[in-house]
Amino acid sequence: MQQWIIWVILGIYVAVMAVIGIVGATKVKNLTSFVVGKRQAGPWKSAFAYGTTYFSAVLFIGYAGRSGWDYGLWAVLIGVGNALLGAWLAWKLLADRTRAVTRKMKIKTMPQLFEKRYHSKAMRVYSAIIIFIFMTPYSASVYSGLSYLCENVLNIKYQTAMLVIAVVAAVYLVLGGYLASLTADFVQGIIMIGGIIAMVFFVLSSDTVGGFSGLSALMEKMEEADMTPASPTFLLGVLSLVLLTSFGTWGMPQMIHKFYGISDKKAIKSGTVISTVFCLIISVGAYFVGSLSRLYFSEVPSGNHDLLVPQILVRSLPTVLLGIVLVLVLSASVSTLSGITLTSCSSVVMDMIGLLRPNMDKKRALLLTRLHCLVFILFSYLIAIGQSPILTLMSFSWGCISGSFLGPYLLGLYWKRLNRTGAWCGMAGGLVAAVALTIAAKALALDPGLTAGSGIVAVVVSMLCCVIGTLVSRQPADSEEFFAAEQEEDNVSAG
């Protein structure tokens, strides 16, 4: 294999990201522009930023490999669910209201949104702590996916591969912040679309698969593995992964953050369509490749599901395309990592340190945020060295964060009566449920799909606790200002 070709492609990508970071740095004037930009993002950049942050190496290597092996072609349904529920429905229900209220009330982080909605500084600090703690294992899972691919394609050490991700993310994020991330995400989104289409084509037309005719052989493999006809427990596992990977994103701060900077209602309408199509191409393509794994292997390589997709690609793709796919996964990983890092570190600086030192100099706050970004990237890198299973890290993080936030966030946008007590009950109840169910699922060695479902149960628990806490406490919600801000911004946009 002519690996120098892959290194050249990788070098070009790193150089482009560096230029984006340097150019973005010239546009960063203060902490606001670093965190949310100028709130003038158009539909294409907003949609691509959402999609590239949604999907990382966790999808291409972790979820696609494990789900494809465990569920065969049924795994493609997870990709369809991501597009329809995780993208289209999320934009329909969340984007407009979130954009309106965050713009009018000058909200820059999710903890600030909770503070404004529920009039609680303590909730702002608590949610910032939750973000910082549970975003770290999530970011570690992002490192892991690309590293498995690099080990198989470039034969470089695991730690070296992870270091590449850290450096690339640090270069353009620390320099250019949100503005650089928008441009980088757009470029990386184009790479991801081209790469996934080429990847599906070459894997499908490989000698091992033999085109669409090979799907009949796959169906036989699925029947041998008791995937068809599907049992209720089997389908519940698939459904759990559909729900977690689709609705789980609704409560993730780095995803919601993409709605803050959208320019207007028109951009939201277009962005909804663009984001849905983008997610459909990427997620369905990735899960489809993973579903073909049983045609390549009679057993899981070294007992590690995260090795399935990398080895499929090495066997099926020409050298040049391997380089492109490597950049594809790198792009997905870096964009997700930058979104996580920016969200987590801005919360720490603005919502924790900022409350302790409200009169901090703006330039110092910007510098501190940049330094925290570097520290966060380094810290998550150190955790990732442990090589924990990707799916485990991802499911645990999503379950805990969404379990804590989705109830107070979603219900808080639509239900005026939801009060502070209800929101606290939702945050606490969802987090406790997520942690307890994850521990129980691991102890009982449950199916990965059912283990992932603990996150969805936590979200439901969070919503129920929000409702019960509100009704029992009978405390006034004091939400008039919040909903008035949403209505005022809508009127301005309409005018």
Structure in words:
The chain has 495 residues and is mostly helical. It has a single domain (3-389), classed as Sodium/glucose cotransporter, CATH 1.20.1730.10. The protein is built from 20 helices and no strands. It has helices at residues 3-25, 31-36, 43-54, 57-71, 76-104, 110-118, 121-153, 158-204, 214-224, 232-247, 253-260, 265-291, 293-296, 308-316, 319-356, 362-384, 390-414, 420-443, 448-473, 480-494. Helix 3 runs antiparallel to helix 11, helix 4 crosses helix 12 and helix 5 packs antiparallel against helix 12. The longest helix is centred in the middle third of the chain and has 47 residues, at 158-204. The N and C termini lie far apart (60 Å).
